[in-house]
Amino acid sequence: MRHVSFVDNNDVTLLESGTAFFPALIAALDAAAYDVLFETYIFAEDDTGHAVRDALIRAERRGVKVRVLVDWIGTEHRPAARLGAAFAAAGVQYRVFNPWCKRGIARSHRKIVVIDREVAFVGGININDDWLCDHAEHKRLPAPRWDFTVQVRGPLVAQIHDEAQGQWLRAGRLGLKQRIELFKEMRKEPPQSCQYPARAAFVVRDNLRNRSTIQRAYLQALGRARHSVLLATPYFAPGRKFRKALAHAAQRGVDVTLLIGVGEFYIQDAVAHSFYPKLLLDGIKVVEYRKTQLHAKVAVVDDDWATVGSSNCDGLSLFLNQEANVVVLDEKFAASMRAHIERGIADGVPVCAEEFAHVGWLKRASYGAAYLLYKLVMRVFAIGYA
């Protein structure tokens, strides 16, 4: 398992939801001069998806090398095929991760874009409309989906590029000539960067060398926490180590608050609810976000540690999926992330121990049954979940 390795002199900008992300992404694509590596879980057939697709095609027609990788489960077979046809007609290189689950049930849940090895985007935002539910076609949300991405400049971009390049290679078959060309590209020196303020790390989860790297980053931060922990996640179902780390922090006097999305999937809500009594008993504050679909996977620990990425705090993300996060050690960035999460908490509904104590036995039993089923499935498919 790899350690979290931080590098200095990065500029990391927080982008909230598609309102900030998509204009920045399209502007960067339109300025691309050399190459684009593009990964996403969902690439939707809506106006947002079409705008991003067209920007990628424009880049290819200018002579930019554009490579796009989407997930077969997330984008779905038929939309992925239609997207592939559009890209093929324009000359864009395109691959689908794990079609027909030929390599098991692993998904590429990552959202990564690297442009000219100068700027990268990493986060949780898929290529789809903020106002449309991402698991029910044409269902409009009550408010824009809440999510985040970071734009990165500096030395960290080289690491992100190399990982995206490796994922592209792993996702398909290349002849010897193409492999040599890609190897030459990877050997090129990245552009020299200015002196930016932030220390940052790029952490990924896969089923080879980085099985627990994202969880390790969280556990290290929770173990060092002294004042506060704010964590927002759409789904809460981590393993025992993660839950213990949260409990130990709260027992040390750290103010721990979880902002959890609800209302998307009943079974996922029931699993999260099964943890509530123990979380509350340990002194952890639990707030449910009901304003709209919470898709953000973000956290802030104390005054200088923050993370943004694609990894949920559940068994799928921490033990099965391909995921990618950026961890930032910077007070200014952490303060910005904290302010966003606190606004989310203000829009949420606190879970009170007294109210939860009055939940009927039948519903409590359904929560417990949901957790046992989830745990069984995770133990079958995801090594390490407990």
Automatic annotation (TrEMBL):
Q: How does it sit in the membrane?
A: Peripheral membrane protein
- Reaction(s) catalyzed by this protein? 2 a 1,2-diacyl-sn-glycero-3-phospho-(1'-sn-glycerol) = a cardiolipin + glycerol
What GO cellular-component annotations does this UniProt entry give?
Answer: plasma membrane
Output the InterPro entries linked to this UniProt entry.
Cardiolipin_synth_ClsB, PLD-like_dom, PLipase_D/transphosphatidylase
Which residues does the UniProt record annotate as the domain PLD phosphodiesterase?
A: 104-131, 290-317
User: Could you tell me which PROSITE patterns the record lists for this protein?
Assistant: PLD
* One of the record's GO molecular function terms: cardiolipin synthase activity
Its predominant location is membrane
Q: In the Enzyme Commission scheme, what number(s) does this protein have? A: 2.7.8.-
Alphabetized UniProt keyword annotations: Cell membrane, Lipid biosynthesis, Lipid metabolism, Membrane, Phospholipid biosynthesis, Phospholipid metabolism, Transferase
Top-level division of the source organism's lineage: Bacteria
Keyword Calcium attributed: no
Does the keyword Transcription belong to this entry? no
Gene Ontology biological-process entries = cardiolipin biosynthetic process
Catalytic residue positions: H109, K111, D116, H295, K297, D302
Give the location in the cell. Answer: Cell membrane
Q: Which family does it belong to?
A: Belongs to the phospholipase D family. Cardiolipin synthase subfamily. ClsB sub-subfamily.
Give a short account of what the protein does.
Catalyzes the phosphatidyl group transfer from one phosphatidylglycerol molecule to another to form cardiolipin (CL) (diphosphatidylglycerol) and glycerol.
Return the NCBIfam families for the record.
PRK11263.1
This protein is called what? Cardiolipin synthase B
Lineage per the UniProt record: Bacteria, Pseudomonadati, Pseudomonadota, Betaproteobacteria, Burkholderiales
